[in-house]
Amino acid sequence: MFLQIIRLKSKLAEEELLKRAKEREPQFQAIPGLLQKYYVRLDEPDSYGGVYVWDSPESMQAFRASDLAKSIPGAYEITEPPAIEMMDIMFKLRD
């Protein structure tokens, strides 16, 4: 499995950001290889993120090249380039 963490700053109010995320939920549910996605609020003002759990790096790369991934900055009206981290999951605690 593979983990991707995206941190972004948005000019949207939290309520509007959540509304847009919920509207886009079916599109994310349909992504091949995306096992789970967590929507998170960070400690800094106007800062949010997504924690993606992928079945493989190839699935993540396919998503990153997709129109859906490219639409994220506009959909959430981000104010600066997002910070992106990618890592292999070595093992999981629970099944």
From TrEMBL:
Domain of life of the organism encoding this protein? Bacteria
- Domain ABM as annotated: residue spans: 13-70
Classification via Pfam families:
ABM
Q: Kindly provide the name given to this protein in its UniProt entry.
A: ABM domain-containing protein
